Amino acid sequence: RFQEVSLASDKFMVWSVSPILTGDVNLNQMMCKVFKVESPPPLPRVLEHLQGLQRVPVSLWPVEEELTEGFHKLLGYLGRSWKGMTEKQRKSLQTIELIPVGPTGDVKLVRASRLFFRLQGDYAPFMFEVPRSFGTHEHLLRSLGCKEEPSTDDLVNFLHEVSSESRRLPLNPNELAAVVKVIGAVADSGANFHGSLPVPDVHCVLRSSQDCFHCLDRELLLTIDRNVVQLVHPSLTAFCSVLGIRDLSKALSHQLLEEPSVMECPEAAALTARLSSREFATALLSMCHEDVGENEVQRKLASLQVCFTETLRYSLFLDGRQVSSRSSIETWFFLDHSRGRILLANHLPPHLSSYQVLASAVDQYIGSQLGRNLLLLSYLLTLEPADMLEAMEKMGMKGEGRDSLRTRGSPGSKLVPMDHELLVLEPCRRFRVGEIIAFEQDSNFHYGVIGENQPSTDEEEDMDCGIQRLPVRIGMNQTKWMLSSDLFSFKPTTQPQDSPPSLPSDHSAPAPQVPQVTREGGQGITSSEVVSAVESLLKKMEVPLSLDQKQLIQHSVELKKELHSVKRNFQSLQGTVEELVSRQDRLRELCSCPITQELMKEPVLASDGHVYERSAIERCMREGRPSPLTRQELEPFLAPSHAHKVLCRLLERDG
């Protein structure tokens, strides 16, 4: 029915929900009124179109006009319709991903509430500055939820929105980096923060800060079940105290699995006496930090008792729930705080004395002030390498190794297992400066970061984004130029999962285009490099590329380069022709009589300073009429204009 049809000029606003008249069918205003075709389309139809727009990638939109021009038209329409909208329609628009952001070739839609006119820092792919081209729609953008700059409350609300959108799925490296920046801004704001805040755990899943713990003790992390305890991501360690995230080492309780059988022996009594002596306290204080209180240390040691037992096995508990990775943990000493005693295992390995074990126990008892890694280094040197890790675990030593998650996203580091499932190959899209990507090297995937010296020329703006040569940071102070066909992107966690709406039957999705060739500075990517890139892509899919196919692709690339060059020359010549036509029209206007509006055959100059056709101006003078241009009285004097006469003859000859 004609009532459901929209004009081609309104296609951008309704193409997913309304049939579009082809461009060669033109309906004037009267015909539109007769057939009840509305232009611009009705608001409910536009809102229905916008509701499903986010499900279709921008690159698949069947529209011919530029995105910026189309969105200017759309936002202008919404701005004019805003006053007539119901409150329900306005709230619906505020939740729609409506505003395009990002470079050409990698455009995505975001809600207006994720846009700000001033934004300190790069929070992509979640928060963006308002594109300059849409500054004219400031009133509408503010009505949709755009603000001048984000406040602390805005950042907190944003984290809750991302947590809801991610649906407990791991964030990809770029999303994680943006979330960490936002959390850092919240922590640095100095505002009194109360309540729960979504924070990423070690699996990069957003969880409540009240349910998470932080832990710097690597050995302790090896003894707990990480599926039971939610640990905050290591990149947030500096903000844990501000955000109220609890320290796991202080929240855990060590409990013996069975009552130890204490052995009576003279050595235990002698060690107890030494610990409670003033001399030992003085020596101990000399090795501690200056902020350790003397009275506090003496008070702890005075009532401390040393006991020996056959075996020591304990488990870790958190809020009354066992969280150990093993059912029991064997140890060589145990701090029994409730009874004020140190329990030592009677049977120790060779070359390890009870004095060394007790020294480590005392150090832990007073708060790890002695640097026991150095104290026991001499013992570790007596062991075979295979026995060192077990000894460090049983002695409770804190190693200094880095958690692999700390290096997630660092240039040159290997991909963590969770990111392998997020890899996607998109060689023909635009890559953002600072974006984390992955590349393959020596049969392993490594992280890389897109550098800042990307090619940016006017020529590229007229071409589709294709295979590119990009600077990639692959390590500390190491940058390598790589083809985009060798780079892997990460799938977004918050991407809508709904299936895209069906397109009108008269509009099929555009066929994928052959990648264009972009340039780095003045150096173009050669056709052989394109062939190599295509061959690399086919190898990833285990599809061989024959010699004839290689030559065909190379020839196709060369033809496309020639076609692009011809297109530029044609556009340049077209501009020259249009300028010449404009000049000719101006010249014809100068040689046309202001009275008859025809080319003059006998031009004469009248007393008002203008040139007329002799017969036309003489008729005015005989009838006593004033000048048709200046309304002055005409003098009875006409002078031939030879210059105009020559120009008129030339124009008449050339048609």
Automatic annotation (TrEMBL):
<dbReference type="GO" id="GO:0016567">
    <property type="term" value="P:protein ubiquitination"/>
</dbReference>
<dbReference type="InterPro" id="IPR052972">
    <property type="entry name" value="Sacsin_chaperone_reg"/>
</dbReference>
<feature type="domain" description="U-box">
    <location>
        <begin position="586"/>
        <end position="655"/>
    </location>
</feature>
<dbReference type="GO" id="GO:0004842">
    <property type="term" value="F:ubiquitin-protein transferase activity"/>
</dbReference>
<dbReference type="InterPro" id="IPR003613">
    <property type="entry name" value="Ubox_domain"/>
</dbReference>
<feature type="region of interest" description="Disordered">
    <location>
        <begin position="489"/>
        <end position="524"/>
    </location>
</feature>
<dbReference type="GO" id="GO:0030544">
    <property type="term" value="F:Hsp70 protein binding"/>
</dbReference>
<dbReference type="InterPro" id="IPR013083">
    <property type="entry name" value="Znf_RING/FYVE/PHD"/>
</dbReference>
<dbReference type="Pfam" id="PF04564">
    <property type="entry name" value="U-box"/>
</dbReference>
<protein>
    <recommendedName>
        <fullName>U-box domain-containing protein</fullName>
    </recommendedName>
</protein>
